[in-house]
Amino acid sequence: xxxxxxxxxxxxTIANFGAKGINLLLTFLVIRFLEPNLFAEIDLLLSYVLxxxxxxxxxxxxxxxxxxHDSNILKAKYISNGVIFIHAIFLVFAAIVFFIFTSxxxxxxxxxxxxxxxxxVYTYTMSNYISALLRNLFxxxxxxxxxxxxxxxxxxxxxxxxxxxxxNLDFYLxxxxxxxxxxxxxxxxxxKNEFTYSFNLKIITSLLIYSLPIFISxxxxxxxxxxxxxxxGAISISILAIYAFSTKFMIIFQTxxxxxxxxxxxxxxxxxxxxxxKIKLDLIxxxxxxxxxxxxxxxxxxxxxxxxxxxxxxxxxxxxxxxILSIPIFLDACYLFTSIYFSLNKNPKYYLYNDxxxxxxxxxxxxxxxxxxxxxxxxxxVFASIFKLFSSIFFQIxxxxxxxxxxxxxxxxxxxFYTITSFYFYxxxxxxxxxxxxxxxxxxxxxxxTDYILRLKNYLIYNSSFxxxx
Length: 470
Hints:
Blueprint: H1 3-33, H2 36-57, H3 60-67, H4 72-101, H5 109-112, H6 114-136, H7 140-163, H8 169-190, H9 201-235, H10 237-271, H11 277-310, H12 318-338, H13 340-344, H14 349-369, H15 375-399, H16 406-425, H17 431-448, H18 450-462
């Protein structure tokens, strides 16, 4: 990994944060003009869309991303057969969904928005596939355009609808659909030279064999947020609105995770035999954790003021849940890095093992924490995330690829301790004290990670080595 890595990192990060930032701005604009109950309904629909997209993709994008690095001769065949497989599965999925939900009453959310649901499932699936291809083919400029242009188009359409007083939920969904379809057309144009337009059952089989454990893991993993929203919606639709509002801020954390992971993965496949690879991986990992902690600190300090200015007072309650929701995301960042060798060693089965641990621990958490409240559905995810990370570390030690240092482990424990205690005391002490506590936590976190901050600074400014005297 050379300085090109950091240039590419900046481009990928700007593209990811730019696209997600625009979409987040659009979401907050929509929330401002929607009743909380309507916002909760649409958020639940989009959760179903993401789960449907996961099902029809069968994690083929992950398999193609892995195999395009192995053979330039077979690269086009892998890409083309991935596209063929996704379209075939989507047609079957659409037929089944149409048959099932046309027989339900209008109060079933998918039945109410059936056309939008199916179209969004298709566009989300293909967008994820094309995004993975552009990233792994190192088409940096095309990747940036592919992410940013549809988001800008979607925001522009929505602002025009607001200015003409024509905004409603149907128009909002159609705006997402039209901008997503535009992005897919643009994406296919960028990768048109990578196609062979040939069907090969052997290649599809090899892709499915690789992706199967990853797919099962993803289905188990992504079932949980959908189940959480269904569970909370059954308790109260207004509470679901508060929870959904909280999760929108978590998009910032998730985007940082995804950006860093999408940057590091292609380079890991090419450079993991380099003697400095583990050192660089350790540095990038700890800097990403520092960035997550920084984001949380600024959210806790400023979010209450932001909500007072623009939103319904009901959303003030979301700050408390942002604290506890950040733990699974922080631990997921740890998991993404500690598990990267599973892909490098072509052992995707370990992803499945870890996600089974996560799913079982989540179900156990539901049993132990059950009390008909939001906490009873959030804390099981925290409980499960901790055990999933332990499981990953266990397999890494077994494979002799574990690279975490003592300072990193201390940082992880400190973050979890801070967020849980803040969540518990949030309604018991003055909110000024919560902000002071956040500042104290952040200061201590910076002290613990001083070595990583200095090493990054020296590398970026003086181009010095990543090596450390530690």
